[in-house]
Amino acid sequence: MQLISHSMHRWIDRIAVVPTFLYGLSRRIPEMFQESRFVLHTVGKLRRLVLVHWQKRYVQQQLSARLGACRQCGTCCNLLFTCPMLTKQGHCLVYGKCRPQACKVFPIDQRDIDEVTLCNAQCGFYFSRDTGEKIRKIGRC
């Protein structure tokens, strides 16, 4: 009988720790998502997919405000995973032929440039603050 009682107390002690663990985990999840490059790059890929296919006006406005030029460094081809069209030398196999639309318009906005910066690289494109403000106002119409 004492063996069963001892076993029950251990079980209860283990269960009592669960709420504390879950509370601590719930406080850390937002922090983990903010610090996770994987999550950031996944959200970025999904955001670009949605923008390219369903927010074409916004993309066109952003492209007209974009300054600079591509450095052809291949960093944008390695954000979440390495693009299968990227050669070992860092060149795109389909660059002039049939690149996906998301590749053609990268970077769409400052968030994309921030993603590249997170990878310790520098994008040749940039957006001035003035043009960004103008586009936000246009988008509200």
Order of helices and strands: HHHEHHEH
**Order of neighbouring strands in the sheet with most strands:** 1-2
* Anisotropy-based shape: elongated
Strand content: under 5%
Rounded to an integer in angstroms, the radius of gyration calculated over CA atoms is 23 Å
Structural class assignment? mainly alpha
Taking the sheet with the most strands, its summary is: 2 strands, antiparallel
Mean pLDDT: 83
Question: Distance between the terminal alpha carbons, to the nearest Å?
Answer: 76 Å
Low-confidence stretches: 135-141
Overall domain count: 2
Q: Roughly what percent helix? A: 55-70%
Total number of helices: 6
| Number of extended strands | 2
What this model shows, in words?
- This protein is mainly α.
- The chain has 2 domains: 1-35; 37-140, no CATH class.
- Helices cover 62% and strands 4% of the residues.
- It contains 6 helices and 2 strands, in the order αααβααβα.
- Strands 1-2 form a two-stranded antiparallel ribbon.
